[in-house]
Amino acid sequence: MTESSPSLSAEQDRSAVLALALLRGAVAAGLGLGSVTVVVLALWISAPASDSSPGSALHAAAGLWLLAHGAELTRAHTLSGVPAPVGIVPLLLAVVPVWLVHRAARDVLVPDEGHPAPSARGAFGMVVGGYLLVGAVAAYYVRGGSLSVQLPSLLFPSAVVVAGSAAAGVWTASGRPIGPPPSWAPVSLHEALARSRFRERAGTVWRAAAAGVAVLLGGGALLVAVALVWHAHPAQRSFVQLSGDWSGRVAVLLLALVLVPNAAVWGAAYGLGPGFALGTASTVTPLAFSGRPAIPGFPLLAAVPAEGPGTVLNWSAGAVPVAAGVTVAWFTVRRAAPPDAGREDAWGPWGTALVAALAAVGCGAGTAVLAAAAGGPLGTRALAEFGPVWWLTGAAALVWTALVGVPGALLLRAWRLRERDEDGEEAAYVAGDPGVAAAGKTAVPVPEPSSGDASRESGGGGRRWWRRSGGRDGGGGEEAAGPVPGDEPAPRRTPAAASLPAGAAPGPVPPAAHPPAQGEDEGVAPYDFLPTGPWRERTARPEEAGPSGSA
After folding, report:
1. Where is 215: in which H helix or E strand?
2. C-alpha span between 177 and 183 (Å, rounded)
3. What are the two backbone dihedrals, phi and then psi, of residue 117, each rounded to the nearest 5 degrees?
4. Do the Cβ atoms of 199 and 176 come closer than 8 Å?
5. Can you state the percent helix, strand and coil of the chain, rounding each to 5?
6. Closest Cα to residue 272, out of 396, 373, 402, 387?
7. Are 107 and 128 in contact (CB under 8 A)?
8. Phi, psi dihedral angles at 494 (to 5 degrees)
9. Cα separations in angstroms, 100 against 26, 35, 62, 64, 162
10. 261, containing H or E segment
11. CB atoms within 10 A of CB 467
């Protein structure tokens, strides 16, 4: 009994941890559903003349929460009496459940004191199971109400969104590792993931693609903001006409806020070229606004361009994908040729182009996913298609970022390496001759002097270095030249000089042998950096120095 008790205790701890993970998933779903319910009930209570019951408000809150996960709803009460689908997901509202599931899966893997941490697979399964259990209860609750959910949409994309968010949370808690791949994967993939260069380039592709998508969304939001300012009066009129009391206007304002990311995606699709659809018979692109639009009264939709062919202002929206391509190129070159690395550490042109091209593919895929989530049906017939076409938008993002990002990455790489080479040459040049470098002149190598080229005085064979003075003499107007004091090289100690008797008087000390002046390094003679030659092979006594040929 004593030997089996520790295993039973460990099994109980493992079961308790898994139950806690299941509870965390359910709590995450409850927090999201509760927050939406509180807002909807507050708006319902504040409405002065509400003809609906509290049950209808709760049904609307549960349906709106399911819509945030990507589920497609059906409105039963319409003017025509025909049920109408609602498939546009408020992307800002979708951030709440995604973040809650991600945080729940991440926190489950943090072990509590005295309790073991569950495995990654166990945490993922329990969190997803607990969350989907609450989602199934909410879907059953809205069945038969004013907003009912279509069952196929609960599996895709709702369950996929929950599972993906939980997987991201588990991956974050594990330190965001890359690999190892499954055992059934090819051996080449295992070898590639084992290389640090592959992981570095994979991370660069991910960051460059994410930056490109962010720039596209930011540019699209900027286009929408400019269009709203340009069409301020129609937008204000639409906002006032939707509701007359302040509670209704607050509801319209909140709905417009949660749809702002959707409008940014629509603006990005407009700048990319494919544009977006305003019904089955109308398309809005920078080139033209054609067809018969079916525009419901809503402030954000009042910012669409005027009908007819596009102008130069509409064409200027093409700056958004160009900026995204430049961003992809810059993020690629930041790792391909970092500022603190040498030419030998930089990536090759083929590797740089490949990473930029893969980043363009990732940017196109991310844009396609966002376009698919930002659009959808708003009704039947004319409103069956509303928003950007996901595959056209993703293909346009891929083409734009590849055409701009790949050549831009190669040009930025070449420019960085060129600047680095110039800096290296300048540093070596300055190190070789600071005086000439400071004057901005070309350094000329000093030839090795020979014994026959040495100029000598009449009384001796001492070497003299002559330089031209900056002034003119008063007589002939020619430049004065003369020996520079202290230019004689330091004498070398020879055996003859070292073997002088103790009482013998030493000869005159040459200027270079005097103690160095203040601020001058000891042991360094003037012009010690000049080339040496046979003229330095002299005795230490100046009177013994003579022409080198007489030696």
Report:
1. helix 196-230
2. 16
3. -85, 140
4. no
5. 60, 5, 35
6. 396
7. no
8. -110, 165
9. 10, 12, 17, 16, 10
10. helix 260-272
11. 11
The pair of structure tokens assigned to 124 is 């993922």
Q: Which residue carries 């340009």 as its tokens?
A: 230
Give the model confidence (pLDDT) of 377-413 as tens digits.
988 888 888 899 999 999 999 999 999 999 999 999 9
**Six-digit token string for 97:** 């459940």
Residue at 176: amino acid letter: R
Distances (CA, A) of 203 to 193, 278, 402: 12, 38, 18
Task: Dump pLDDT digits (tens) for 101-153.
Answer: 999 999 988 876 666 778 889 999 999 999 999 999 999 999 877 788 888 88
For strands 276-278 and 308-309, give the pairing.
unpaired
- The residues with which 1 forms a beta bridge, in sequence order, are none
* Closest residue by Cα to residue 351 from 213, 209, 204: 204
Rg (CA), the chain: 40
The answer to whether 317 and 276 have CB atoms below 8 angstroms apart is no
Spatial separation of the C-alpha atoms in residues 379 and 365, rounded to whole Å:
27
**How far is CA 123 from each of CA 18, 106, 127, rounded to the nearest angstrom?**
7, 9, 6
Spatial distance between the Cα atoms of 35 and 22, rounded to a whole number of angstroms: 20
Angle formed by the axes of helices 349-374 and 260-272, nearest 10°: 130
**Residue 227, pLDDT score:** 93
CA distances from 490 to 458, 467, 485, 524, 537 (A): 21, 19, 13, 9, 11
In terms of phi and psi (left: phi > 0; alpha: psi -120 to 50; beta: otherwise), the region of 130 is alpha
Q: Rounded to an integer, what distance in angstroms lies between the CA atom of residue 158 and that of residue 56?
A: 23
The three-state DSSP-derived secondary structure of 28-78 is HHHHHHHHHHHHHHHHHHHCCCCCCCHHHHHHHHHHHHHHHCCCCEEECCC
CB 229 within 8 A of CB 386: no
């997901």: which residue's tokens? 89
Distance between CA 461 and CA 17 in Å, rounded? 98
Residues in CB range of 77: below 8 A, 6 or more apart: 146
The torsion angles phi and psi of 490, rounded to 5 degrees, stand at: -70, 135
Percent of the chain scoring above 70 in pLDDT: 72
pLDDT (tens digit per residue) in 288-300: 998 888 877 888 9
The Cα-based distances of 310 to 307, 313, 315 in angstroms read 8, 8, 7
pTM of the predicted protein model: 0.73
Q: How far is CA 514 from the centre of its chain?
A: 63
Ranges of the chain with pLDDT below 50: 1-8, 435-506, 509-514, 516-525, 527-529, 534-542, 544-551
The pLDDT assigned to 247 comes to: 81
Contact in structure between 454 and 531 (CB atoms under 8 Å): no
Amino acid at 233: H
CA distance 133 to 137: 6
Beta bridge partners of 483: 466
Range list of H helices, 433-494:
434-439
In the block, tokens 């302040």 appear at 246
Phi, psi of 87 (to 5 degrees): -120, 5
C-alpha separations of 285 from 5, 288, 291 in Å? 72, 5, 11
d(CA 106, CA 115): 16
